[in-house]
Write a structure and sequence with these properties.
The chain is an alpha/beta fold and about 190 residues long. It contains seven helices and nine strands; from the N terminus they run βαβββαββαβαβααβα. A five-stranded parallel sheet has the order 2-7-1-8-9, with helices on both faces. The longest helix is centred in the C-terminal third of the chain and has 15 residues.
């Protein structure tokens, strides 16, 4: 059996992680790829659960060995990538697989796996996105400005995706995504 990969992307601070967390907690049948990154761990993040936190040298080795389905520099600073083997293994096993990645990564996956389903998670409005980003309190003012500049470019890419889901309520957005994946959300 070969299951279709679902790729979830959208602008920074739109709530990709929050929607994904809801799905993880309520639908364990969905497999999530764990991305590799060179960025420092944030409080509460666990290596191998939230990300594989790697040194620049280790990340370079994965690239050189062709072991990443996609990778990119995000916000002009840190690299993120998706290890390819676990994704292909789950799809071959018929397990519903979801990649939660940035726009650059989604574009690379589209080149390598054009039959995947590409879902753009959009904010209810630009003002709401700004409020979410600045309200997190996890980035400096300079970093917030860098992320907002990135978000403007990312919002312009919405037409590249198969479908858009507006994240005005986490459960509703998650259930819409699950429905697209063919997963029942009724209790």
């Amino acid at each position: 059996m070969n299951t279709r990969l679902t790729v979830l992307a959208g602008p920074t601070a739109v709530g990709k992680g929050t929607v994904s967390t809801y799905i993880r907690q309520n639908h364990p049948e969905v497999w999530f790829s764990v991305s590799a990154t060179t960025r420092p761990r944030r409080p509460g993040e666990v290596d191998g659960v939230h990300y594989h936190f790697l040194s620049d040298d280790d990340f370079d080795a994965l690239i050189a060995d062709g072991q990443l389905l996609e990778y990119a520099v995000v916000h002009g600073r840190h690299r993120y990538g998706t290890p390819a083997a676990p994704v292909r293994e789950r799809l071959e096993q018929g397990v519903p697989a979801l990649l939660e990645i940035d726009l650059q990564g989604a574009r690379q996956v589209k080149e390598k796996m054009p039959d995947a389903r590409f879902v753009f998670l959009a904010p209810p409005s630009w003002d709401e996105l700004v409020s979410r980003l600045t309200g997190r309190g996890t980035e400096s003012a300079e970093e917030q400005q860098r992320r907002l500049a990135t978000a403007k470019r990312e919002m312009a890419a919405e037409a590249e995706f198969d479908v858009t889901i507006v994240n005005d309520h986490v459960r509703t957005a998650a259930e819409e995504l699950l429905s697209l994946m063919g997963i029942s959300t009724s209790d």
